[in-house]
Amino acid sequence: LLLRAGLALLAWPVYLLSFLGIWEPFCRKVFFPFFLEKISGAHDKKSKKYKQELFRNLPDFRGPSGELRLLEIGTGSGSNFQFYPAGCRVTCSDINPNFQEGLSRNMKKNQHLHYEQFLVAAGEDLRQVPSGSVDAVVCTLVLCSVHSVSSTLREVLRVLRPGGAFYFLEHVAAEHSSWTYFWQQVCYPTWKLVFAGCCLTRELWKNLEEAKFSELKIQHISVAIPWMPIEPHIVGYGVK
Fold first, then answer.
1. To which H or E segment does residue 117 belong?
2. Would you kindly state where each structural domain of the chain is located, as residue ranges?
3. With left for phi above 0 and alpha for psi between -120 and 50, is residue 48 left, alpha or beta?
4. Do 161 and 63 contact (CB within 8 A), yes or no?
5. 1-239 CATH fold
6. Is 110 within 8 Å of 81 (Cβ atoms)?
7. N or C, where is the chain less crowded by C-beta within 10 Å?
């Protein structure tokens, strides 16, 4: 509690702006898109080999038409586009519409894809996407900040066709006996405020195990970024 208070004291300008109702709109429009683009670059360098392996079998989930229809939840600036197979038809969605600059830049870099549309939508409410209409759903570094993980996974299963797959790579809570978990607990309140609702201590593998996937592959990995308490990750996919 003492360390939490000390961290809150260091971040007092953010708490003040939050109290005045200024921080959230500033964070959504300016700070978080800027920060996420920077952290995505560092994270992609550390996680590239895991993403290459994760998305290697995406072509196996092409639909009966031979096309791969993919929905990405929390697309952000589109750092995953480079890992998708040529000809993939991508629908982008994000609750925050302020990533357009980085998103446009990554679209231009990855013209091997067909971009269908951009939806402003929360992961818990994908009503704009018809049921059973996509072959794959991708979600990376997003489940940490949705309001309800279980509702998001229900929506994932709804929009997937039978036999479709949900791909994920997420940071999660560390082992409870570890120093990493101790620092996650210390940072949790201030981190969540500063970084747009990101939760450090979610045990997301439990939510995935409780969801109704017919097949689920989960691997616990380590993606270390200096001065970031988000080293423990899970990566894998579930089949509907």
1. strand 114-120
2. 1-239
3. alpha
4. yes
5. Rossmann fold (3.40.50)
6. yes
7. N
